[in-house]
Every structure is written in C-alpha cells, then in structure tokens.
Design goal:
Number of domains: 3
Radius of gyration: 21 Å
Distance between the termini: 61 Å
GO molecular function: polysaccharide transmembrane transporter activity
Structural class: alpha+beta
Number of helices: 3
Keywords: Signal
CATH superfamily of the largest domain: Outer membrane lipoprotein wza domain like
Helix content: 25-40%
Largest sheet: 5 strands, mixed
Signal peptide: 1-22
Domain Soluble ligand binding: 106-152
Domain Polysaccharide export protein N-terminal: 26-101
CATH class of the largest domain: Alpha Beta
Shape: elongated
Length: 181
C-alpha cells in the first residue's frame, strides 16, 4: 500500500512542475515574429487555426474579427482578445485556447562547431544553446561569451558578457569569441 501511494505521489510530483511551467509561460512569454501558435475555439472548427506563423508585421487575419496584432502579447492576452471579439455578436460563450507550437530562433555565432539559428526552448541557457550548436571549437574562449538581447539588437554596444548558466530569450544572439591562448 505504501509503495503504491509513494509511486503515485512521485508521479504526481513529476507532472505538477510541467503544468506550472506551461501556465507561467502563458503569463510571461511575449509573442514575436517567427513564433507559431495554435488557436482553438471549442466546437467551432472554422474559427480554429492549427498553425499560425506570426510574420514580421506581427499581424494576422482572423475570421469575423479582421486583423489582430499578436506581437508583444502573451498567449493569454491574445486568447482574451479573440474571446472578447467573438462575444461581440458571434458566439455567446466562446472557449478559446491559444498555444505556442513553435518558438522563434536564437542565434549562436563565433567559435562553435555549427553556427546558426536554433529554435528556442523554454528554459534555454547559454551552455545549452552552445550544445545545440555542436559545442565549442578548439579555439573558443569559454569566458568570452557575449549576448545581444533581441529587444536591443539595433545597436552594436548592447553586447553583454554572460556566464554559461545565463538564461536566454527567443531572438537573442550569442557570440563566442576566439581565445588567444
């Protein structure tokens, strides 16, 4: 009996953090160009969109509501906007869900084996992004790692030196410089 209870409670403990992180993602993650979302309206297939790519304009056309701006909104804010719009003469009590199905890229440049863009994953850190890029080259400096945040990519003087454990966001650019020794 104790083993069954312990096994079930351990399983529940593993499941609960996933729910919390999904909810916190909805409350903090801001959509941007390059993200992919799914919009589901319960019982209304013609109002549901399986996969919507957010373009550089940040807008998309939605049935009955016209153009909606998605960029810089959380999935929850977008859900409320669509739900409120559908209540205005279209549906009595719409049940809308907005899910992020794909994130925009992070970019890893410099002294890594496979520089390029890689899809962001929640919880991504500098060292994990470097691992996605194949790891350091032999010439890489492990303490000369810089990041340019996506929201400040317009200026060259926004490079910030970071530790390998630092968290990164979608659209960020990592540069690993060469070691001279």
């Amino acid at each position: 009996m104790f083993r069954q209870y312990f096994g079930i409670s351990s399983l529940l403990a593993l499941c609960i953090p996933a729910v919390v992180s999904a909810n916190s993602l909805d409350n903090t993650y801001r959509l941007g160009a390059g993200d992919r979302v799914q919009i589901s309206v319960y019982g209304e297939q013609e109002l549901s969109i399986d996969e919507l790519y957010i373009s550089s304009s940040g807008k998309f056309d939605y049935p009955y509501l016209g153009q909606i701006v998605a960029v810089d909104k959380t999935p929850e804010q977008l859900r409320k906007e669509i739900s409120n719009g559908l209540k205005q003469g279209y549906l009595i009590s719409p049940k809308v869900r907005v899910s992020v199905t794909g994130f925009r890229s992070v970019y890893v440049n410099g002294e890594v084996k496979k520089p390029g863009g890689y899809e962001y994953q929640p919880g991504l850190t500098v060292d994990k992004a470097i691992a996605l890029a194949g790891g350091f080259t032999d010439r890489a400096s492990r303490n000369k790692v810089f990041i340019t945040k996506a929201d400040s990519a317009d200026s060259d003087d926004t490079k910030i030196k970071v530790r390998l454990s630092a968290k990164i966001s979608p659209g960020d650019i990592l540069v690993i410089e060469e070691s001279f020794f």
